[in-house]
Amino acid sequence: MGSLGGVQTMGRRERRKAQTRQALSDAAIGLFLRHGYDSVTIAQIAEEADTAIATVFAYFPDGKESLIFDDGSERRDGIVAAVRDRPEGQPILRALREFLAARGPFAATLSPQLRRRTELVMSTPALRGYQRRLWNRSQDALAEIIAAESGRDPGDMTVRALARYVLEVPDLAAGEPDPRRALDAVFDLLETGWTGP
Questions:
Q1: Which of 67, 137, 145, 179 could pair with 105 in a Cys bridge, judged by C-beta atoms 3.0 to 4.6 Å apart?
Q2: Does residue 109 surpass a pLDDT of 90?
Q3: Do 59 and 24 meet the contact criterion of CB atoms below 8 Å apart?
Q4: Which pLDDT score is estimated for 7?
Q5: What is the topology classification, in CATH, of domain 73-192?
Q6: What is the pTM (predicted TM-score) of this model?
Q7: What letter would DSSP give residue 87?
Q8: Whether the domain at 2-64 and the domain at 73-192 fall into the same CATH topology
Q9: What mean pLDDT do residues 62-76 have?
Q10: pLDDT at 134 over 60
Q11: Positive or negative CA dihedral for 142, 146, 149, 154?
Q12: What pLDDT is attached to residue 6?
């Protein structure tokens, strides 16, 4: 990638790759929404995007589930930044709650397209499971930033447990009738601890 006045620019090859990836993703989402995830094949996606089946697998080696998600790096980078860049004095769990509250089924407002995509993911076990795996790939990075920001050892079991619990919240709470209320209930528990018998 080149740089022009400090701004990163993509070369032609990178732009073409990004366009191909986006075209495949758009084709898959459109087909999934029209026909249902389970009814759509990789061959149909390739045909819809006017490309070869091998091209689909070259860009999305994890298979059909991965076609509507990034590789998980955006999630990882976002959740790490939520902790690292939080306002001074803001507790880590508050920053994590706010980060998750702005995403997917927890967001107060979503465009109609994002709402339909979120509903598709939440109603399709394979997509929901893949999304959960993407969140869980962030566990080590989240544990490291929690440890760094709290002055603890990244190997501390409580740090690793907290990272794991937080990353399970999206899957746990998103399927509830009121996802935002469920998200808040889980974070209330994490912030205050269990008080029952």
A1: 179
A2: no
A3: yes
A4: 47
A5: Tetracycline Repressor; domain 2 (1.10.357)
A6: 0.82
A7: P
A8: no
A9: 88
A10: yes
A11: negative
A12: 47
Instruction: Identify the three-state secondary structure at position 83.
Output: helix
Instruction: Take residue 164 and report the two structure tokens written for it.
Output: 């794991």
Give the pLDDT mean for 140-168: 95
For the domain bounded by 2-64, which CATH number is listed?
A: 1.10.10.60
Three-state DSSP class for residue 9:
strand
Residue labelled with tokens 């440890």: 147
How far apart (Å, rounded) are the C-alpha atoms in residues 129 and 126? 5
The C-alpha atoms of residue 78 and residue 72 are separated, in whole angstroms, by: 10
- Residue for token pair 């808040």: 184
Helix (H, G, I), strand (E, B) or coil at 7: strand
What percent of the chain is modeled with pLDDT above 90? Answer: 68
Q: Where are the chain's structural domains?
A: 2-64, 73-192
HEC string of 133-181 equals HHHHCCHHHHHHHHHHHHCCCCCCHHHHHHHHHHHHHHHHHHCCCCHHH
**pLDDT value at position 113?**
83
